[in-house]
Amino acid sequence: MQTITLKKLLVTALGTAAIALGTGSAAQAAVIFSDNFDQEAPGGLNFTTFDKWDVTDGTVDVIPVGSSFNYYPGNGSYVDLDGSTGDAGVLTTKQAFNPGTYLLKFVLGGSTGQNNLNDVLVSFGSLNEIFTVASDDPLKQFTRAVTLGSASELSFSNAGGDNIGAILDSASVETIPTPVLLPGLIGLGIGVLRKRKVAQAEA
Ligand SMILES: [Ca+2]
Ligand SMILES: [Ca+2]
Ligand SMILES: [Ca+2]
C-alpha cells in the first residue's frame, strides 16, 4: 500500500511541477551581458578605451565605420583581434561573472580576402576552446554552455601577431533557466561537492 501512496505523491509532485513550468514560474533566461561594440565608434587602431572590456595583452583594433577596412558593412563597429603592433590582442571583460551555468554567444568572422588564418582562444570557466577562422569565413554566431566554478572573466585571445586578426562582432552571456524539478538534483550535487572538499581538506 505504501508503494501506491508514494506513486500517488510522485504523480502529484510531477503534475505540480508541470503546472509550474506551464505557468512560467521557472526562472527565465536572462541576458546579463551583451556588447556589439557599436558604441565604440568611431573606433581606431590599437583601441583601448572599451566600455566593457580591457585589452589585457597585445593590441586590438576597432574598425572605424566607413573606413576602407570596413569588411562587414551594416554591422556597426567590430573588433580586429590582432591590432597594429605585431602583437595580437587579448580582450577580457572588465566584469567577472558569478559561479553558475551560462549560455555564451559570440560572433566571429574572417579577416576577409587577406589569406590569413587566425586561431582565437575563447576562455570562460569550463570553456577553453580554440576557434580557427579562415579569411573568407563569414560572420558566424557560436553558442556554448559554460559552467563557472568560481568568479570568471570572459576572454578572446588571438594567436600570433601579423596585424590581421579574426573579427569579433558581438558577445553575450545569458543565464540558463533552472527547471522546477532540478533543485533536488542540484542539492545532491552540492552535497557531493561538499564531501569532495572535506576529502580534499583531509588529504
Ligand atoms: Ca558590431
Ligand atoms: Ca589589425
Ligand atoms: Ca593573423
What does the model show?
With 203 residues, the chain is of the alpha+beta class. The chain has one domain (31-175): Sandwich (Jelly Rolls), CATH 2.60.120. It has helices at 2-22, 182-202; strands at 31-35, 53-57, 61-62, 79-80, 90-93, 100-109, 118-124, 127-133, 140-148, 155-158, 167-175. The longest helix has 21 residues, at 2-22. Residues 1-6 and 9-25 have low confidence and may be disordered. Bound molecules: calcium ion (3 copies).
- Overall average pLDDT: 84
Reading off the top of the CATH hierarchy, the class is best stated as: Mainly Beta
Spatial shape: globular
Helix fraction bin: 10-25%
CATH superfamily: Galactose-binding domain-like
Range of strand content: 25-35%
Any low-confidence stretches, pLDDT <50, length ≥5?
1-6, 9-25
Class by alpha and beta content: alpha+beta
Sheet of most strands: 6 strands, antiparallel
Radius of gyration from CA coordinates: 22 Å
CATH architecture: Sandwich
Q: How many helical stretches?
A: 2
Distance from N terminus to C terminus (CA atoms, Å) equals 47 Å
CATH topology grouping: Jelly Rolls
Based on DSSP secondary structure assignment, what is the total number of beta strands?
11
Are any ligands bound, and if so which?
calcium ion
What secondary-structure arrangement, pairings included, does this model have?
Blueprint: H1 2-22, E1 31-35, E2 53-57, E3 61-62, E4 79-80, E5 90-93, E6 100-109, E7 118-124, E8 127-133, E9 140-148, E10 155-158, E11 167-175, H2 182-202
Antiparallel strand pairs: 1-11, 2-5, 3-4, 4-11, 5-10, 6-9, 6-11, 7-8, 7-10
The structure holds calcium ion (3 copies).
